[in-house]
TrEMBL record:
Gene Ontology MF terms in the entry: metal ion binding; pyrophosphatase activity
UniProt keyword annotations, A-Z: Hydrolase, Magnesium, Metal-binding
Cellular component, GO, one term: cytoplasm
Protein name, UniProt field: NUDIX hydrolase
Listed PANTHER family: DIPHOSPHOINOSITOL POLYPHOSPHATE PHOSPHOHYDROLASE (PTHR12629), OS02G0734300 PROTEIN (PTHR12629:SF42)
Keyword Magnesium attached: yes
Cofactor dependency: Mg(2+)
Superkingdom of origin organism: Bacteria
Gene3D superfamilies (alphabetical): Nucleoside Triphosphate Pyrophosphohydrolase
SUPFAM superfamilies named among the record's database cross-references: Nudix (SSF55811)
InterPro entries: DDP-like_NUDIX, NUDIX_hydrolase-like_dom_sf
Length: 146
């Protein structure tokens, strides 16, 4: 879904849905780290997310968002790790959006990706992600990784 379609749906009072990934890796010491990225506008920490893409399953779309926004390639789990809601301004409309998040084990980290100049990224422990991510309920998803 693009921004124009989302805005039209929001004006009609229809629900809007997005998908996201919680990218993670296991270190040589067996510890889990998650990748957080900054938002483009306010530079807040979050996990990659975006509109579900036509022709892709929700986990596939989440993996695509992780590639575009964080520059990581991996395999998303088939089932969601959790959900959260937020409000997004779409022109003159403020729309509630429900985001379904999928854990994604990272296989490869790219040195160059499409949004590299727009975002920062960092590997952190799940407990640190909880503190960095301001949105209620989003940071805590890092605790529930496999």
């Amino acid at each position: 879904m693009n921004k124009r379609k989302a805005k039209a749906r929001a004006k009609k009072g229809k629900s809007l849905r997005q998908v996201g990934a919680v990218p993670y890796r296991v270190t040589g010491k067996g510890e889990i780290e998650v990748m957080v990225i900054t938002s483009r506008g306010k530079r807040r920490f979050l996990f990659p997310k975006g509109w579900k893409m036509k022709g892709k399953s929700a986990p596939e779309a989440a993996a695509r968002e992780a590639l575009e926004e964080a520059g990581v390639v991996g395999t998303p789990a088939g089932s969601a790790i959790g959900r959260y809601e937020y409000c997004k301004r779409l022109g003159s409309v403020v729309a509630p959006i429900r985001v379904t998040m999928f854990p994604m084990r990272v296989r490869r980290e790219l040195s160059d990706w499409s949004e590299k100049r727009q975002r920062k990224r960092a590997w952190v422990k799940p407990s640190v992600a909880e503190k960095l991510i301001e949105h209620p309920g989003l940071g805590s998803l890092a605790r529930d990784l496999p």
